[in-house]
Amino acid sequence: MNAAAAPLLIYTGDGKGKTTAALGLAVAAAACGRRAVVVQFQKGGGYSGELFAQVHLPALTIRQFGHGCAIAARIKSGEATCRKCGECFRANRDPANPYAARALAYAAGALQDERPAVLVLDEISHALRRGLLNPGQVIALIGSRSPETTVVLTGRHMPDELIALADQVTYCRAVKHPMKDLHIDARRGVEY
């Protein structure tokens, strides 16, 4: 990578915090008036807390590309919680659905049209691992960015080809987590 170019960052590993770290970078950029675009792969619930941030930060755009939830409006309002039916996970993994390709196309358009200071490709490793995208497509996208755009990739099991390209790789490792260790369900405003 050219030393003058903005870095490629990766947050991967089996622990929590990958999306949170990437969103923190995007929010910091947007709070400073710099354009930040977050493209969420295989997420489509429409009720996660980060979506509320873009209302307060005009320089921040968050777009989800994944299967929606039938009760998303009720979850968003706090009237209901996720039923853990698994429908969204099954639909997002189905290669017949165009979500991953649409997300990648949106990211490519954002790079060209908006030239963001930060572009986050959240959970992109899942689309790669499931064969919905291939690493070459992501490498081409990264190569098409302007030298001023920091790209952030998140998700477990990031492919080695992308790790080799990165300027910074952070591995999030689970040591303790209340959902697993204390059997506390996902909390609105904390986990989603």
From TrEMBL:
**Which SUPFAM superfamilies did the record assign?**
P-loop containing nucleoside triphosphate hydrolases
Q: What is this protein called?
A: Cob(I)yrinic acid a,c-diamide adenosyltransferase
- Whose protein is this, by species? Anaeroselena agilis
